[in-house]
């Protein structure tokens, strides 16, 4: 099998030599950016903590919501490193399991928004005319409202739950990708390689899929990386006001909301979930900002 694959891999490497060299330079620039590397490490630690939560804590049942009222409001200790909440549940276990909910809503919201906004932006920018007007006027309607306020209204209409909160936030997020991709497509459709593809009779759908979309994905991925942190923060805000995941499902925003009631006497209940939201959101924003600089050859040289 290896012998059969080797000629194919060698041919592929020769055909994509310039792209591989570009990726190599980007990788070297990324490793020199200590802030980007630190942000990536923090994000990976939270993701691994959420995935392996049942094995990282001796209290997995409490992490899922099982109460233990005999140990409520215990301060941080060796037995409970982050203390316990009002129902005696280990706070570290709740944060680890809550990461599954909070991180999921961040990733899923951005994936849905990209899946909706990217093709709409490509169609609007490539074809123009009445299709462009229709798509952009619809986009302007969504952008006319503050995104958080619109998400709250949609979630309130659908009913409080994790799924409805995710849908509500995603429906307010896609217009940004539509505008971004449309602007990129307007520039790309006049490039010689697109004109050449049309000139030899390549179908318009193929031109969009093979020549337009691959060339707009870099700014989309950079924006998506930065938006994951904002989506996590927005999802936490939805849970904070009771429109996100419902108890006993753990969620960082929900935990902050509970902790604020007891903040004077038991500050750890709100402090540690709040720090989790802060660290993850900040790390995604810093990582996205670094990737944006690294992806641009003009600013990549400035990274030491």
- Described by its quaternary structure, the protein is single chain
Beta fraction of the residues? under 5%
Instruction: Summarize model confidence as the mean pLDDT.
Output: 87
What is the global morphology? Answer: globular
| Total strands | 0
Could you list the spans in which at least 5 consecutive residues all have pLDDT below 50? Answer: none
Q: What does the main sheet amount to?
A: none
Quickly count the helices.
14
Category from helices, strands and their pairing: mainly alpha
**What is the chain-wise order of helices and strands?**
HHHHHHHHHHHHHH
Helix content: over 70%
Termini Cα gap = 42 Å
Radius of gyration: 23 Å
Task: List descriptors.
304 residues; mainly alpha; globular
Can you put this structure into words, describing what you see?
This protein is mainly α. The chain contains 14 helices and no strands.
Summary of the model, kept short:
With 304 residues, the chain is mainly α. Helices cover 77% and strands 0% of the residues. The longest helix is centred in the middle third of the chain and has 37 residues, at 91-127.
């Amino acid at each position: 099998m290896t012998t059969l694959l080797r000629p194919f891999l060698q041919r592929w490497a020769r055909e994509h030599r310039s792209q591989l060299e570009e990726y190599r330079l980007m990788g070297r620039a990324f490793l020199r950016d200590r802030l980007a590397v630190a942000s990536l490490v923090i994000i990976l630690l939270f993701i691994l903590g959420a995935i392996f939560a049942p094995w990282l804590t001796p209290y997995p049942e409490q992490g899922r919501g099982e109460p233990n009222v005999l140990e409520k409001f215990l301060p941080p200790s060796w037995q409970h490193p982050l203390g316990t909440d009002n129902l005696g549940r280990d706070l570290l276990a709740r944060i680890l399991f809550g990461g599954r909910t909070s991180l999921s809503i961040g990733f899923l919201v951005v994936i849905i928004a990209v899946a909706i906004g990217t093709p709409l932006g490509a169609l609007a920018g490539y074809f123009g005319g009445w299709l462009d007007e229709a798509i952009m006027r619809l986009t302007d309607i969504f952008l006319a409202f503050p995104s958080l306020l619109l998400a709250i209204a949609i979630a309130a209409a659908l009913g409080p739950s994790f799924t409805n909160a995710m849908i509500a936030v995603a429906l307010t997020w896609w217009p940004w990708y539509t505008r971004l991709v449309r602007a990129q497509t307007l520039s790309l459709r006049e490039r010689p390689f697109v004109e050449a593809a049309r000139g030899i009779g390549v179908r318009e759908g193929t031109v969009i899929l093979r020549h337009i979309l691959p060339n707009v994905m870099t700014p989309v991925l950079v924006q998506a990386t930065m938006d994951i942190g904002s989506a996590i923060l927005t999802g936490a805000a939805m849970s904070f006001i009771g429109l996100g995941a419902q108890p006993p499902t753990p969620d960082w925003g929900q935990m902050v909301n509970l902790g604020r009631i007891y903040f004077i006497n038991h500050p750890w209940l709100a402090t540690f979930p709040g720090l989790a939201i802060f660290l993850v959101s900040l790390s995604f924003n810093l990582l996205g900002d670094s990737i944006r600089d690294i992806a641009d050859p003009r600013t990549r040289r400035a990274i030491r």
